[in-house]
Fold this sequence. Notes:
By secondary structure, this protein is an alpha/beta fold.
Amino acid sequence: MALDSASLIACGVLTGMGAVVNTAGVKAGSSVVVIGCGGVGLNSIQGARLAGASPIIAVDIEPGKLAAAREFGATETINARSENVAERAAALNAGRKADWVFVTVGVKGAAEQGASLMKRNGATVLVGMPPSGVTASIDPGYLAADGQRILGSKMGSARPIIDVPMIVKLYREGRLKLDQLISGRYRLESINEAVASSRSGAALRNVIVF
């Protein structure tokens, strides 16, 4: 496979897809909410699609990323800037909260929002890495009373010797999108432009091509 697409496996794909497949072990028919539709979030969506989850609800503030989420397997989308996420997510899931919530952005408040969207006996998986020192407030009484869980997922609990060949196989079979994740290709001398594009929130994944 082409090296530019292969380079994405090492972080975004392993992290996002692995959070669903390895950390959570999502089963077919489970309802899933993914907060954040960047490179990691889109791969959580792909993982949920491959696992047979339904519905798969994508949450973001960028219309372009919500459109990409549909392409990668989201069945529903919510614009957090213009819609009430909790109300809309429940409405899209037959009035119920989600079995699984994946927080793929490192933004203050996202973890709290994620925890508010999981159902009784549900779980929230924290994937995104906020800056050091950022904290979240969650009422432990609700977690205990409702049997809920909060899980951390580092690099998608990856087993590289198993997961990388599996991802390559899924890509070759046409079941996993990698090429479509690349929103920009840059030469090394233009790396500052690539970084600026990523920081703007507009990019899915930029790659440096040698």
